[in-house]
Amino acid sequence: MEGALTNSSSSTSPKGRGVNFSAPRNFGVKLRKKCKETFFPDDPFKPIGQEPNGLMKTKKLLEYFIPVFEWLPKYDLQKLKYDVLAGITITSLAVPQGISYAKLASIPPIIGLYSSFVPPFVYAVFGSSNNLAVGTVAACSLLIAETFGEEMSKNDPELYLHLIFTATLVTGIFQFAMGFLRLGILVDFLSHSTITGFMGGTAIIILLQQLKGVFGLAHFTHKTDVVSVIHSIVVNRAEWKWQSTLAGVCFLVFLQSTRHIKQRYPKLFWVSAMGPMVVVIVGCVVAFLVKGTAHGIQTVGPLKKGLNPPSIQHLNFESKYLGMVLKAGIVTGLIALAEGIAIGRSFAVMKNEQTDGNKEMIAFGLMNVVGSFTSCYLTTGPFSKTAVNYNAGTKTPMSNVVMGICMMLVLLFLAPLFSYTPLVGLSAIIMSAMLGLINYEEMYHLYKVDKFDFVVCMSAFFGVSFISMDYGLIISVGFSILRALLYVARPSTCKLGRIPNSVMFRDIEQYPTSEEMLGCVILQLGSPIFFANSTYVRERILRWIRDEPEVVEFLLLDLSGVSTIDVTGMETLLEVQRILGAKDIKMVLINPRFEVLEKMMLSHFVEKIGKEYVFLSIDDAVQACRFNLSKAKPEP
Amino acid sequence: MEGALTNSSSSTSPKGRGVNFSAPRNFGVKLRKKCKETFFPDDPFKPIGQEPNGLMKTKKLLEYFIPVFEWLPKYDLQKLKYDVLAGITITSLAVPQGISYAKLASIPPIIGLYSSFVPPFVYAVFGSSNNLAVGTVAACSLLIAETFGEEMSKNDPELYLHLIFTATLVTGIFQFAMGFLRLGILVDFLSHSTITGFMGGTAIIILLQQLKGVFGLAHFTHKTDVVSVIHSIVVNRAEWKWQSTLAGVCFLVFLQSTRHIKQRYPKLFWVSAMGPMVVVIVGCVVAFLVKGTAHGIQTVGPLKKGLNPPSIQHLNFESKYLGMVLKAGIVTGLIALAEGIAIGRSFAVMKNEQTDGNKEMIAFGLMNVVGSFTSCYLTTGPFSKTAVNYNAGTKTPMSNVVMGICMMLVLLFLAPLFSYTPLVGLSAIIMSAMLGLINYEEMYHLYKVDKFDFVVCMSAFFGVSFISMDYGLIISVGFSILRALLYVARPSTCKLGRIPNSVMFRDIEQYPTSEEMLGCVILQLGSPIFFANSTYVRERILRWIRDEPEVVEFLLLDLSGVSTIDVTGMETLLEVQRILGAKDIKMVLINPRFEVLEKMMLSHFVEKIGKEYVFLSIDDAVQACRFNLSKAKPEP
């Protein structure tokens, strides 16, 4: 072949340095591998398969699917001591939070208490995190209320409650299905930046919602965006009650100082954990003594004694509400998953433990399915409770069992006492929790390190604050996906030069001392080459050549970073070869990866390019080009 | 530092082989570079900036934006000869196609002729392709009719026509804006596979639509999907007319044989190009002689003499139609762009010429804006006409001017003659054109090379055939984007080994002879590491380590293929380091690229990992690890 390169590596040379042109793998093999990588990246069944006999295999499988079988046999008194302490501590947080968040969702406060009784038992059996404490969360509570709208909660509170149970069932089934189908991949698309911004924005709107309680307003908007809420507060300024505001400020100052104490002296974490309970008790006592309701201090109102009544007969699948129910269930389910999994993982990492996202989804799902049958609404792993649980030294999910038992006692004997809780106290508790969710430092960190991450974060933050929670989330995820697509649509290319006295070729811009090879342009392509970026890749390659001041005779494309290629991508490379061929420039490919080379073989691409133009390393290719150049020179 | 690696390359060693830890670039610099890569990958203004003085710069700029200034001064008689020949040939195709496609869009046939008169002049001025012939296309014509629905076209044909002009204006503005904003990137997401499938599916449904003409049916469904159409033909079998069917089959056989001749003897391309005109003329004569209408052969009906009347006063922006108009305009605009650009580019590549996607968009946009003012509907670069133009030897866009002039003559003098054209003749012309658009070979090629590409193609094909054109397109693009996201969500990793007697490290699976390094696991990561794949990357790395039979002391991550990283990605790597640290495994990073290293510096990631754990090449890292291992061994 005229002008062919002397490619010492093209065939099975004795040195064994050739490109491996052997036949591509079977399609079935590749598909199985791909599916495994997509859905089972952690290869969970491998240890089970290694067990010698069927009995052990069943045992391992049971342990895998129901984690309680793994940790309970190893359980001892020492661990129990810690778990009991942690369980009691989180109960003291669960009571006020349960009541407060139920208020946020516009449902009877007792539902909030019910929700801390049944689900923790379910989680203890199926959950894989040792630190997570089960409970309701502010963001999802508000989001549920937003989805169904205030009208329904006012006009027909019974129907409203039943729809919320139904949405909880939907959430449960959705979460379970996601875990079962191993679709943890969907949660991955809620990036860290999105969650930071979403939490911050949610905190802002929940904080503003609480001003209703602090100012003791009777009339208030039911929209959640910043503008409507501030407008509503200003318009209703005639209703402001100084008693309420004073109490609110006192409580908030108290709660924030307990937080401050915790930050100063981490050992005193229980001061902060007990804080909300103290506020509730003090509030109840004061409200009872001064007959607060007469002075315009609103209280929670009647709370019935007794355990969760069944709610399975109330589930409502009427088609006219089904759309709303599905939307509420799925959106809150996704957010609850993202929050719960992220939080569970963060704390596990601190202890060098592992949590399994797919197992967590199944546990959350079962918890909500069972919850929806027993008068509970959506539960997940809230940040504040989990942090307290972690600090209290929990060792296993047993702390959730302890919390469940404590909650049972509260429901059986103490519930009516909490009916005097002043709303302003609850508002202060929520506000204090929300202040901790606005993560300024993280936002500043994002701003400094990655401007696009910052934009994603801010779009969630401002979207939630000024539009609504679901739009904020959608906008932010949209930006993230746009970014992901931009990555693939505009993969970075760079020109390589030789690091002096070595066979390494590196980015010339990054290593300015590296030397260019005369007559050769060496480009490193990153990412897959496929339909979404093939035009760009072609333009960019041609531009590199155009920008070259010297005469170019060889274009060397380093494909080490190209993880895959599709039909459009290969056509693009052929097009580049044709265009360059017309300018007497030869195209050389270097180190195509396994999958890429397989496709090139299947589509006869290698034959079209010529095997002698495919090399295993840049150095080999440069040697061959130079040899060819020096040989070609004397000819004319 | 205890256990630190002896990294000869960590500082500015005399050999100059160190990792370049210099300060990151300024944000502004990076942003400008990023924007340039995203929107101006071909760097179009560079040659202009190189001009010495302002006058030359203006001239170059004018030449850039209005390509006619570039080619017209160099125009000569020799080129004119070819262009006149090509122009006349494509006119003979434009007349029957214009009438047929207007029928497809349910608008008066004369509009189809108008659409081949004004737009070609506009394209000749602004277009950058030398091969493209301007005209209407079947797919978009049918899609427009589908969007507005048959009811409107029946009940109020005037309003229907005015809305189509308005949609054409929307298309024009949209295409112009896309070109102006350099959003060619959007067209990239219509992959080759999608277009193959979409064209095939469209050909199927258009073929079926033509059976109405061939069977001479009076009643026919207005749905486009295969099931409805076949059902409609069977139900109305009482209306079948053998005269019509016979004529249709004859015409089709004639046209297909001219195509066959062209394929056999490419020099005789004009036989095939003139075919449709012959059908029309023969059809007219026969219909006139036998008084076809009396025998149930339907004809086109009255065609007025005269040039395009202005239509600017008919544009209709009433809000109740606006949604439909915008949808029709934008969807057809996108498809027309994708088709026009892809076709223009395919032919340019054969001649080793270049077309500029963004310029083409501007030209198409202007063409449609002007068209919508002068009673034309959507035009682009149809495949059949462009192929004929190319074969006829066109040299410049002047052939479009010639076609425009010929069309003017037709409109002024010959139009009424064509009113005798039998519909069955038009049906045969369309069917013959459509048969060429089903690209079986390409589909089989996709099936063989890339199963996912095949799925994308088939989803467009069957989606268009059995649901509707827009859904088919959306499903297919959805699959493509899903694939793009899967690429980034599940980047391939592989384990590297040393190729014997070299310093090259390659995929062990691909090169089975390569040697593993004792105590070290070397992994190559591909693609960016960011939110969408960070969980996967972590799981995958940990699994590689778990699967290792020997004791692992070092994990070497080759980051050469990692084109970028975000905050979540860096946290993931730190998490991996912490988890491995607990197992006494040290993590070493190799050759982070420019952008990646910059972000690592900004977020103090490098300090957390330790500079001595970052190497420039795998070989350096392996040397350091081995040195460390041999040193560590004797100690205990």
Automatic annotation (TrEMBL), chains A, B:
Regions crossing the membrane: 121-148, 160-183, 189-208, 268-290, 324-349, 361-380, 400-418, 423-440, 460-488
Membrane topology, record value: Multi-pass membrane protein
Entries under Gene3D superfamilies matching the protein: STAS domain
Key words of the record: Membrane, Sulfate transport, Symport, Transmembrane, Transmembrane helix, Transport
InterPro entries documented for this protein: S04_transporter_CS (IPR018045), SLC26A/SulP_dom (IPR011547), SLC26A/SulP_fam (IPR001902), STAS_dom (IPR002645), STAS_dom_sf (IPR036513)
Keyword Ribosomal protein: no
Protein known as: Probable sulfate transporter 3.5
Species of provenance: Camelina sativa
